[in-house]
Amino acid sequence: MRIKKKGDVSTMQKSRKYRYVWAFVFLGVGAVILLVLNICIGSVSIILPDILRTLAGQGNNGTIARILWDIRLPRIMAVIILGGGLALAGYLLQAFFHNPIAGPFVLGISSGAKMVVALVMVFLMGKSIRITSADMIIAAFVGAMLSMGFVLLLSRRVKGMSMLVVSGVMIGYICSAITELVVTFADDADIVNLHNWSQGSFSGMTWENVKVMAVVVTVTFIAVFLFSKSLSAYQLGEVYAQNLGINIRLLRIWLVILSSILSACIVAFAGPISFVGIASPHLVKKLLGTTKPILMIPACFLGGSVFCLLCDLIARTILAPTELSISTVTAIFGAPVVLWVMAVHKKERAA
Amino acid sequence: MGYYFKTEKMSVGYQGRPLIQDIEIGLHKGEILTLIGPNGAGKSTLLKSIAKQLKLIGGAVYLDKKEMAQMSGTELSQRMAVVFTEKLKTELMTCEDVVATGRHPYTGHFGILSKEDYLIIEEAIELVHAAEIRNQDFTKISDGQRQRVMLARAICQEPEILILDEPTSFLDVKYKLEFLSVLQELRIRKELTVIMSIHELELAQRVSDRILCVNGEYVERFGKPDEIFQAGYIKSLFGIKTGSFDEENGIMELEPSRGSADIFVIAGGGSGRSTYRKLQRERKAFITGIIHENDLDFPTARALAAEMVSVKAFEPVDKIALERAKKAIDSCSKVICCRKTFGSLEIANKELLDYARQSKKVVE
Description:
The complex is a heterodimer. By secondary structure, chain A is mainly α. Chain A has one domain: ABC transporter involved in vitamin B12 uptake, BtuC. In chain A, helix 3 packs parallel to helix 8, helix 4 packs parallel to helix 6 and helix 12 crosses helix 13. Chain A is globular, with a radius of gyration of 21 Å. Chain B is elongated, with a radius of gyration of 26 Å. Chains A and B meet through helix 9 and helix 10 of A and helix 2, strand 7 and helix 4 of B.
């Protein structure tokens, strides 16, 4: 047996550190590659030298510059910010409910946000009032909290992770039905807009949008990160978290608020997007080999961005010029992950 | 006399409804208190209330003369650690990771462990003899190992007082003894005060400085083990209707056989116990003698024999006892002798055997 000096960092811890570094490098490189692909590929292909020239301000091709600055870059920024935020929201909800298949979409939170946004949009559009990004976020936040409230009420009565998810899905259906109803009664001109958005899409992002979402998501991200230590105790179960000096009530309130803000922000700009919130945290967790929040929080964000960059690239290009709704693609990649998680968990519980 | 841990008229329960009332406990630093009592009596409720997991219905708890209600979460977490029956939820965590979570109250805002923290973790792992499993996944170890890791985690918290709810319930005998030894070591090394609930009465009797008996609305008894374990008390505390518990010796026996006795057992020096139990299993009633009250066979004989001829400790067997035994043999058709040879101080039993042979009884 190897004799160990006291206080020495064990080889186990060293090899773990390598793994963390490699995981972040992998995600970072993935993000950069997908970023470049997203810029280059589209209905008009742009080669890399042209892009660099345009970005440096030396481009003399007005069309390329416009495609780049007005369409692709804001969209890519939105994908990165919202994808990361969505994954983080999923991670927070999974931690909150101690439930591996929780996420803003399956718990009906996205649909709740969608419903209130649709109501507000139709109401304000009917009066010809222009809707700002802030209005949308606030409306979405109200909807998210509404759904969350129902889920919380139900979570006290239903036991077991699958039942909670079923309740969430039901809430989602109710909200979607109401949204459909509202959309049906809306004026023809609004319907196209509303319909696109209510299917979930990253298209039509403006720099103005990006600015607002960047501020909201950054502030929320920092807040979540500051809770990482409390979260690590909370993960152990409430009995032990309490004994470690955590104010459970306060922490739970914060988790609800922060995850609702993130979900709301995403819905306000891109509509409901399925499965990113569940799938990304699990994939990232497998990659890191740990559940430590201090690592999981940034890694989840990065993982969500990468996941959405990939999905958006596919949504835009696979049937170009027709664009798929983003949820179609995220479901194809995300839903199998959920099935896999459920199968593994069953097995673990049986063992 | 200053107690380190003290409760004053503490009432505990759920949703404002008291389950146990007016609990008065006083413990000095480094003492071990165990709670005993029937299932559902409220031992866990009491422990959870002490750990501030449940709101007190009334009264107060003091730690080092400071009321616990006044303490912040962090202050309490640096003084009190718990090992409850609730499972620790972990995912992708090694045993060492789990132990390290005990450092939570001492680390900075982001929970980064310092060299000193690692030293304390190391020490805790060694103390519970968990070095060989430190890198294993916490969900993939045995119950015994898990309980030791949980204890190490609690030790890492550097508490002054430790609260444990049935820590030994799922451990085999080796781990039970090991676990309690570690607790004793902690109390000597660190003057740790311990409050725990335990189902094994014989262990409670051995490890505790104080015992609290919970039954019904009030605390029935609180005191030293020998004050608690008085003849007949355990039977009444647990409402035992079948079988018996010998408080002095910590021996449990099943219900004695009923009916008229047809077998006489000559025993002594511990030679008769297995025969008594065999007869109990076969549902055969028996008479036994002549047993001194300080004999190893005495507790079991008292619990199982339909009738026993006994004499006082350190006194010779008198004529009356001998005559009684002979009469008993007369009434039986069979005599079992558990003694192979007779020592010079048990001539009386030898005489009984000869008597049985003379009266043509079946002798085994």
